[in-house]
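PROTEIN DESIGN WORKSHEET
SECTION A - STRUCTURE
LENGTH: 331
TOKENS:
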């Protein structure tokens, strides 16, 4: 999934940069407000792609003393920034430019340049959109479009697709606006098309900001995964019940799990608690590779003897991250 996302982002950067230059040239020759808005849109998308690529690289940095669980949330932060930039620069500037053009009432000039650039832009945007869709399909896994956007933990999977979809629709708005403005001799239509492009970008940006905010704050695993974790834990003979299951995504491919269990009361020596606490995380990680940090604890009233050893079960990964990881309670 990471490689598909990176390919989609790189393709979007290359395409948007070429498109932005051609659109600015066409806007200069035609004087079209809608074309200028499209140029601004493509330039913003180019910068946004660079930020997403930067966030992807930063999020893969290994854990250190100050960040024992790594830098996975950096990707969510930069995805949020991208959404804000699309709203403020892409949408806001397009709306302002459109309103100014409506007030000025100047018709578009030579449309040959604009039509040529729109055709070239449509080709580049379609290629970029294809790579974005390809990455999104990998994340989709049979789910619906809206459901995938709501449940995915990789913001690059929907950011590129949403931006490119908005860009293709914006090209349609620009084409219709310029054509009607000239054919009907109503210059304000070109400005209205620019405003429509700005509103479209603002709506896409709001969706991106909303989803990225949820990821940045911290989202957990879905209910199906939680139920399966409970089933795995309860399969151990020593486990009476699962008291609490808490998860949080530390990045698109990294999850932390805190599992609190109640154990059966039994004479000392009947169960090997340490072995139980080793088997449960091993089984969970085998079933869900994304769950890389597992902490298992027991409720205070379920401890059998003061000398019984209980410990956090993340001996393979969590202990290596920080000496301050929570240990299982000893009684």
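SECTION B - SEQUENCE
RESIDUE ASSIGNMENT:
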């Amino acid at each position: 999934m990471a490689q598909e996302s990176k390919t989609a982002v790189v393709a979007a950067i290359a395409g948007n940069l070429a498109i932005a230059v051609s659109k600015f040239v066409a806007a200069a020759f035609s004087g079209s407000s809608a074309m200028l808005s499209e140029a601004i849109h493509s330039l913003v998308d180019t910068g946004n792609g660079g930020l997403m690529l930067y966030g992807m690289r930063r999020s893969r940095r290994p854990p250190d003393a100050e960040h024992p669980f790594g830098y996975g949330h950096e990707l969510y932060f930069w995805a949020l920034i991208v959404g804000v930039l699309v709203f403020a620069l892409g949408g806001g500037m397009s709306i302002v430019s459109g309103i100014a053009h409506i007030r000025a009432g100047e018709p578009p000039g030579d449309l040959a340049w604009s039509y040529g650039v729109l055709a070239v832009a449509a080709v580049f945007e379609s290629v970029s959109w294809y790579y974005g869709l390809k990455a999104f399909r990998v994340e989709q896994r049979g789910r619906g479009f809206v459901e995938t956007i709501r449940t995915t933990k990789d913001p690059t999977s929907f950011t590129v697709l949403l931006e490119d979809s908005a860009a293709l629709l914006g090209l349609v708005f620009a084409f219709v606006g310029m054509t009607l403005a000239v054919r009907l001799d109503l210059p304000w239509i070109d400005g209205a098309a620019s405003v429509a492009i700005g509103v479209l970008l603002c709506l896409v940006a709001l969706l991106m900001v909303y989803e990225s905010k949820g990821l940045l704050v911290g989202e957990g695993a879905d209910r199906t995964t939680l139920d399966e974790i409970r089933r795995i834990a309860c399969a151990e003979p020593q486990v009476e019940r699962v008291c609490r299951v808490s998860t949080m995504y530390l990045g698109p491919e990294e999850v932390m799990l805190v599992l609190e269990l109640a154990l059966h009361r039994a004479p000392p020596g009947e169960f090997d608690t340490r072995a139980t606490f080793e088997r449960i995380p091993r089984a969970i990680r085998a079933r869900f590779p994304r769950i890389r940090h597992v902490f298992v604890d027991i409720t205070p009233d379920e401890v059998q003897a003061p000398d019984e050893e209980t410990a956090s079960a993340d001996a393979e990964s969590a202990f290596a991250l920080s000496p301050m990881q929570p240990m299982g309670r000893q009684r």
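SECTION C - NOTES
The two ends are 45 Å apart (CA to CA).
Strands lie at 239-251, 254-263, 291-298.
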